[in-house]
Amino acid sequence: MSGGDGGRLPSPVRRVIEPFVDRTVAERVLISIAAILLSIGVGFAIVLVSGRIAQCSTAAWTMPVTGLGFCYDPIEVYVVLFNGALGYPFAVGEPGIFNAAWTPFNLSFGLTLSETTLLIFTGLSVAVAFRAGLFNIGTQGQLVVGALATALTVLAIAPLLPAGPIAGVVVVAVGTLAGAVGGGLWGAIPGALKAYADANEVITTIMLNFVAANVAYVLVLEVFRAEGSSVVATRYVPEHAQFRPWLFPNSSDFALLALLVAVGFIGGLYYVVEHTPFGYDLRTSGVQAAAAEYGGVNAKLTTVRAMTLSGALGGVGGAVWVLMSEGRWIESVPDLGFDGITVSILAGNNPLGVLPAAFLFGLLKGGALEIGFRTDVPTELVGVLRGLIILFVAMPEFFRMAGRYAGLGSDGPGGPKTSGTGSEDGESEASGDAAGSGSDAAAVGGGEADA
Amino acid sequence: MNPAVHLDGITKRFPGVVANDDVDLEIERGSVHALLGENGAGKTTLMNVLYGLYRPTEGTVVVDGEPRSFASPRDAIDAGIGMIHQHFMLVDPMTVWENVVLGNEPRTWGGLRVDEAAAREAVVELSERYGFDVDPDARIADVSVGVQQRVEILKALYRGADVLIMDEPTAVLTPQEVEELYDVFEELTDQGKTIIFISHKLGEALSAADEITVLRDGVKVGTVASADVTREELAEMMVGREVLMEPATTPREPGERVLEVTDLHVDDDRGVEAVSGITFELRGGEVFGIAGVDGNGQSQLAEAITGMREPASGSVDYLGEPMAGVSRRGHIDRGMAFVPEDRHERGLVMSYDLVQNGILGSQHDPPFASGGRIDWEASTEHAESVIEAYDVRPPNPDADAEDFSGGNQQKFIVGREFERDPDLVVATHPTRGVDIGSTEFLHDRLLELRAEGKAVLLISSKLDEVQGLSDRLAVIHEGEFSGVVDPATVTEEEIGLLMAGESLADETVSGAAIHDALDDGLGGSGADGADDVEAGSDRETAADGEVDA
Q1: How far apart, in whole angstroms, are the C-alpha atoms of residue A187 and residue A50?
Q2: Which residues of chain B does A440 touch, with a Cβ-Cβ cutoff of 8 Å?
Q3: What is the value of ipTM here, to two decimals?
Q4: What is the 3-state secondary structure (H, E, C) of B383-435?
Q5: Are B537 and B510 in contact, with CB atoms under 8 Å apart?
Q6: Angle, helices A379-405/A25-53, rounded to nearest 10 degrees
Q7: How far apart are CA B12 and CA B25, in angstroms?
Q8: What is the distance between the terminal CA atoms of chain A, rounded to a whole angstrom?
Q9: Transmembrane segments in this chain: where (chain A) (predicted)?
Q10: Angle at alpha carbon of residue B528, lines to B525 and B533, rounded to 5°
Q11: pLDDT surpasses 70 at B522
Q12: Which of A120, B143, B270, B338 has the smallest number of Cβ neighbours within 10 A?
């Protein structure tokens, strides 16, 4: 059979991917929960096997019935992963279910929420581009540029104002805005290249990540490096010009205010995407570009705008990284932009989904640190467990997106088309069946060819 | 003698829908049987039951006197039943004979190698036995749609089909190709084959079938011999009420000049010139029709006029203003409505509900956009009013566009565009896939717009539609008007000749020339080498399209 993109996929692949394309939100949430449980099951086995292979003097866990000893305790690993990420709200080794001494404002939970906050911005950045049908791999670069813009702006204006809470608010706001502008401009470049030079945004954003990282490095190295610093970093911004970690311990690098700002961004972006004419244009371009064009959407302008918005969100992520986590621009920028891609996929590219997705990532990050403190399980193995959870949870969503890209599912854009009839008369009976009979017929065609 | 097929009390239920309700059907061996009904009447479902794609909820399929239970089309094929779908299942880069034998190739070397010579020979032999004019070595991509259809028939015959089911076989054919298809029917039935075809076109059922069974809402209304029934009676059986077969056209009162197209040249996506110097003007209160075989530049012409495609040269003036460089948005804002030909790609966003689809094109305009946000209440009201006025079924504005049948999707698009209060409506194939009752309604609405003084550019491949509604009628061939005629006096034969690129003055037209021209028009190379097609004579039934409206 010839025809649409979907038709080119071999039929076993279609059969695997197709069911994922048309899921409802509730089904997708259920799938995600099942995926977490499944990944824990697999991870459990991996911890056991590694625990058998590793050498240790005393067994951390003995398997009931068989009496086999293992170096790592798989139950403990997962308990510490989730319990530890929250700062042990559940009692460990003591009577009772809850830990009486627990408060939410502990170091571990702060680390978890710090990671969550940063990933919300980068997740939103990737999500908004994806909703417009653009794959922005460049959030990392936009974050780097935004972070540098924020650091330099704050360092420039902070001395001009008397230190104090009011000046702090102003400086933080202006610094965040500078991050948004920096990231937005950096995102606008691949947007314009895509719109006016037909350059694939996946390629250009990847390349611009390297450009951003290296240009920022050289700039700081040669021009803005703090005197006497052993690493390539700018000076610290003044304390009053940072997001302050009220309630949480200083070392958690977490500010509740920043999380609230991030949640505000989620709500704002959701509103923009779902309830404004601009959002309508953006979404329509993403799901069906030809229909958007028909509906008077300027495709080029929408591409540039979406990439600019995406870049600005990445830039704000950079601003928060500087003003909340580091207090300065430093060469070792974490891979927040790349993790944002997975967060966005996990969230189904829905701004509202970014919150739980980023929180799951934050939990895994915070939990991994705890496992390092509390157990002998090597950090590499913890990385494997994190990867498994993400892989299992993201895969169904990834299938769904890939399927939509390939034009599978119920009669979507680029759906099954067949040979050169050219015309689309589509007298389809009793709605719904039509799609069914179409795919049945396709399966028949495939069956004949296989026989 | 047993009937070739006997469907006994077939009921097919889907969740919430009874697609077929206790349908009995007997089909005589060697006859042509038409299954007639509106969109959603249950025709295709019934045939899918016969072809083994669906299992009936109740009832029995009896083939040749023997009750059968088909688990899959494979079983149906083994029982001698073949089905030719509306969209062909052919591999474009492969040759005719390769497509015919695909999946059932004769083998040599103990099954390791396809016996190409034997396969080709078998296809040639079949093709000759039934008088098909098909070049076995032509590539599918190079032959016309009519030939592709014959290849599909050959495929079914090669697999031993005695009963051929065809779903809307004429939907993609030119009038001349339709005639040839009827000849194929005759050849097949002469040799004992039985044909069942699904249609919603009255004229086609009357001229091609021996017997006609009418379905309505999943129930069989009756079976009649085509010789004993009139169009009006059939239409009433289908719709369940009397149908006005002629739209009430009033004399036209041309108003202001709305559209002026001058020496327009437009390229297609590949950069090949698709519209080659078209000039016309259109006034308010006037319907200007453009007829032609699909793919002769109609799409590009409509897109250039509505601002979706930049013309290569020439000009489009709308309401006295040159439209060069005006965006698509600008065209919409200036009151131009456009019913696009591809409803799945352009006309609707398939994953959006009808509320969101109802504002496509108006998403920045009041009352739908106010204060930087979309007013979903106003949008919902709008969708509901279109749904009600244009009888979109089911009447649920929250259902996604992809969940509606083609005819209902089309009604919604046409409704949305007509209700824009436009000065110009560009409508391409506005009633494609729409059933007879709704077609009548859409035609009436079109004429109402005309009476209100709007200008209408109607592009359609349905001859009766463009002929019946237009005040002036142009025929397009290879990007040029091969003639502009008075639809009241022109005959269908004359339009057919113009569609083939002939001029009317030239009386000595050979059939081969027409056929080649048609092939060219479809982008094929005429590889089937039609040398003696009698296209010039006896074509009064050609293209007697869906509704004589």
Answers
A1: 43
A2: 48, 53
A3: 0.73
A4: HHHHHHHCCCCCCCCCCEHHHCCHHHHHHHHHHHHHCCCCCEEEEECCCCCCC
A5: no
A6: 150
A7: 14
A8: 14
A9: 29-49, 118-137, 143-161, 168-189, 201-220, 254-273, 304-324, 336-361, 381-399
A10: 110
A11: no
A12: B270
Structural domains in chain B, sorted by start? 5-239 (3.40.50.300), 244-335+422-549 (3.40.50.300), 354-419 (no CATH)
The predicted model scores a pTM of 0.70
* pLDDT, position A347: 87
B374 closest CA partner among B355, B388, B347, B352: B355
Cβ <8 Å between B433 and A427:
yes
pLDDT reading at A334 higher than 70: yes
Nearest chain B residue to A404 by CA distance is B351
Can you give the length of chain A in residues? 451
The top-scoring range by mean pLDDT among A80-89, A136-145, A409-418, B513-522 is: A136-145
Banded pLDDT at A12 (limits 50, 70, 90): low
Q: Which two tokens stand for residue A339?
A: 């993790």
Tens digit of each residue's pLDDT (9 = 90 or more) over B342-352:
888 899 999 89
pLDDT(B383) > 90: yes
Greater confidence (B518 vs B63) lies with B63
Residues A293-318 have pLDDT tens digits of 999 999 899 999 999 999 999 999 99
Tokens of B412: 């919604």
Q: What is the pLDDT of residues B340-380, one digit of tens each?
A: 988 888 999 998 999 999 999 989 888 898 888 999 999 99
Six-digit token pair at B41? 């009447």
Strand ranges across the sheet with B5-14: B17-27, B5-14, B58-63, B66-68
CB contact under 8 A, B350 and A1: no
Q: Which amino acid is present at B436?
A: I
The total of other beta-carbon atoms located within 10 Å of residue A339's CB is 22
| pLDDT value, residue B243 | 62
Among B298, B336, B338, B363, the residue to mutate for chain A (most A Cβ within 10 A) = B363
- Chain A nearest-CA residue for B51: A441
Least confident of A19-28, A99-108, A270-279, B447-456: A19-28
Contact A430 B345 (CB under 8 A): no
Of all residues in chain B, the one with the smallest CA distance to A273 is B373
Q: Do B374 and A445 touch (CB under 8 A)?
A: no
Q: Across chain B, what does the average pLDDT equal?
A: 83
Q: Is B526 exposed, middle or buried (0-12, 13-18, 19+ CB in 10 A)?
A: buried
Report the amino acid identity of residue B103: G
Rounded to an integer, what distance in angstroms lies between the CA atom of residue A81 and that of residue A382?
Answer: 9
Helical ranges in B452-477 per DSSP H: 463-469
Helix axes A433-450, A11-21, angle to 10 degrees: 160
Nearest CA in chain B to A447: B103
Q: Which of B351, B459, B462 to mutate to probe the A interface, most A CBs <10 Å?
A: B351
Write down the residue that tokens 């937005």 correspond to. Answer: A184
pLDDT at B433 over 60: yes
Contact indicator for A91, A104 with CB cutoff of 8 Å: no
Pick A419's closest partner by Cβ from B45, B72, B90: B90
Mutate to test the interface with B, among A431, A439, A450 (most CBs of B within 10 A): A431
